[in-house]
Amino acid sequence: MINGDISKPAIVITPYICGHSKSACVRRLANEFSQSGHSVYVLLPRGSLDTKFSLECKKLRCEVIDSEDIDTLVGLIPNKQVILAGYSLGALNICYYMTKSQQIVNRSKVTKIIMSYVEFDYNYVLKLPSRIQKGIGSCIVPYVNNNREYFYKHGISQKSIDNIVKMSTVYQYDQEITIKTWKTKSVQEYYDLVSITPMIKDIQVPALFISTADDIITGPLVPFEEMKKNDLVNSVVFNYGNHLGTATSDGRDMVCQLISQWCQ
């Protein structure tokens, strides 16, 4: 948390999968906003870094999309207005919260949303070489290992956890755990259910989508036609930057600068 001017909108950053406050892109965005006098909060996914789920938790939580914590944090922030800024999976979480979630007690405080490096085609990553898929999912291994007892308590078998550790892919995690929390019959059904593209028409606050043309994880798909149907939605595509990175030679981040300017 970074304290700022309470009269300005507070910023809540939701990181990418297994991301945290020390992640480079998150630090750059937090620094950009703090220099402008905003209070900044980073919402850590439960179980991230070296933290563990409480064994007293009564339900199997889906940290992929679980907007309960977003709504709770927004309600605790003293500022009257809040801006949500998400990276990759964190962006999906924000879009779901703003359009489909039932956890909306404090949603009226949110005045703008920014969604960067969004995956509009969830099947794209499955076409990548296995070594890249394993690299993307490598952060999941310590996450599930640190929380084995929690998962066992909620009916996830040791075999399922071992499969995730062995395969080290997001898809395997979705297969063994995520679809159980969403009660879908298949990973594809879950991907269809949480696809961002159909949510775009339901966004009711100014929104900014940011992508890079060379993003190896999300691929080139950006649903411009859907975005054109909602006057509140804006989209910017950078020529380069890959996934999560557009830092310039002077250490500043073009994406962060754009976000900061758009929020003024």
UniProtKB/TrEMBL annotation:
TM region(s), chain numbering: none
Superkingdom per UniProt: Eukaryota
GO molecular function list: monoacylglycerol lipase activity; short-chain carboxylesterase activity
SUPFAM superfamilies registered for this protein in UniProt: alpha/beta-Hydrolases
Family: Belongs to the AB hydrolase superfamily. AB hydrolase 4 family.
PANTHER family xrefs: ABHYDROLASE DOMAIN-CONTAINING PROTEIN, ALPHA_BETA HYDROLASE 1, ISOFORM A
Protein name: Serine aminopeptidase S33 domain-containing protein
Taxonomic path: Eukaryota, Metamonada, Diplomonadida, Hexamitidae, Hexamitinae
